From TrEMBL:
Protein family membership: Belongs to the SorC transcriptional regulatory family.
SUPFAM superfamilies xrefs: NagB/RpiA/CoA transferase-like, Sigma3 and sigma4 domains of RNA polymerase sigma factors
Region described as Disordered: spans on this chain: 1-38
Source organism of this protein record: Glaciihabitans tibetensis
One GO MF term attached to the UniProt entry: DNA binding
Compositional bias per record (Gly residues), positions renumbered to this chain: 18-34
A Pfam entry, by short name: Sugar-bind
Record keywords, A-Z: DNA-binding, Transcription, Transcription regulation
Name this protein carries in UniProt: DNA-binding transcriptional regulator LsrR (DeoR family)
InterPro entries in the cross-refs: NagB/RpiA_transferase-like, RNA_pol_sigma_r3/r4-like, SorC_transcr_regulators, Sugar-bd_dom_put, WH-like_DNA-bd_sf
Keyword hit for ATP-binding: no
Domain Sugar-binding: 94-347
Length: 348
């Protein structure tokens, strides 16, 4: 029941149904098959409201409930992902920037409107919320999604919308241990939120973020237990990651919590590093060769990452601009979820 409609006094909107005042939404079954009464009521209310244009009063009469109950059912439908609201206009500034990003970098951009006066923390939360809502449409049953850890992924994990999947799994992209902590609790909490949201099996990667010696990593990579996780990563359908940067206004976890010492930071400066993707460091032109720390890092090499069909990058803040440019230049991104201000800077 897909339709492209013109809301009264508004720009064209593409959606799967119409709501009051020109809003648009898609009714979507949960697929749980468990006969959840509230879910069924919410689905019915959403169908009547978005697909049949009934008012809340009319729905209340049909369902024999109060108008406030209808409002709560519709809110439940939106919050749980049964209904997705999508507004598109080819005329506004965001759409122009989206087109420019698509043409210049060959990515599918998802631009999040954020007021210029918003704090960097608020900016991150808004982008993370949008990414969490979008992600459900990328991940389904019988799929494997690789997830990096970090400040951005932690924020995304807190806003995930539940979706029932079967035979799906989440795999950790990079190790999290350092000399101060095993990193297990931090990384596990992030990954487990993804597993819980999608009913997916979680595969951890219990290795350091960085080995002390490249030879140690090479030996470890030959171990069967490690090979098993690497092989799962090699079968990923979706890779989800943020962009780390030593210059970010919201500190990136890997640069602030004991993973790197003074010698490491000097090495990054000497190599003109602008950021990292899953603890693999890169320059503004997208190159990552000749950066000593990469030989000790446990994130997926860029050749492996580029083989993943859908590579979703979530980033916020102008302070990460060079790092985002580097990741785009390296061809690591197919879908970019980013705040409006940084998106504009990418094409200006």
């Amino acid at each position: 029941m897909s339709a492209s409609l013109e809301g009264p006094g508004s720009s064209p909107i593409a959606a799967h149904g119409t709501g009051q005042g020109g809003g648009h939404g898609t009714g979507r079954g949960s697929g749980s098959g468990q006969g959840d009464d509230k879910t069924q009521e919410a689905l019915r209310a959403a169908h009547l409201y978005y697909m049949q244009d009934l008012t809340m009063d009319a729905i209340a009469r049909e369902l024999h409930v109060s108008r406030s109950s209808v409002s709560r059912l519709l809110s439940f439908a939106r919050a749980t992902g049964l209904v997705e609201i999508q507004i598109k206009s080819p005329l506004d500034q965001i759409s122009r920037v989206q087109n420019d990003l698509r043409d210049r970098y060959g990515v599918a951009p998802h631009i999040v409107p954020v007021p210029d006066h918003a704090s960097e923390v608020d900016r991150l939360e808004r982008v993370a919320l949008s990414a969490a809502r979008i992600l459900g449409s990328f991940f389904d049953s019988n799929m494997t999604m690789g997830v990096a850890w970090g400040s951005t992924m932690s924020a995304v994990s807190r806003h995930l919308v539940s979706k029932t999947t079967h035979n799906a799994q989440i795999v950790q992209l990079n190790g999290a241990a350092n000399t101060r902590t095993t990193g297990i609790v931090y990384a596990s909490e992030i990954l487990q939120r993804f597993g819980n949201a999608y009913g997916a099996f979680v595969q951890h990667f219990p290795v350091p973020a960085f080995f002390d010696d490249p030879a140690t990593k090479e030996a470890f990579w030959r171990e069967r237990s490690t090979r098993r996780v690497l092989e799962i990563q090699g079968r990923m359908d979706v890779a989800l990651f943020g962009i780390g940067s030593p210059y970010a206004d919201v500190p990136s976890h890997v640069y602030t919590t004991g993973y790197l010492d003074d010698t490491d930071f000097q090495s990054l400066r000497d190599a003109s590093v602008v950021g990292d993707v899953a603890t693999i460091f890169l320059r503004a032109d997208g190159s990552h060769d000749g950066i000593p720390l990469n030989a000790r890092a446990t994130g997926p090499d860029f050749a492996t990452l580029r083989q993943v069909a859908r590579r979703v990058c979530v980033s916020s803040g102008i302070s990460k601009l060079d790092a985002v440019r580097g990741a785009l230049a390296a061809g690591l991104i197919t879908d970019l979820v980013i705040d409006e201000g940084t998106a504009r800077a990418l094409v200006e």
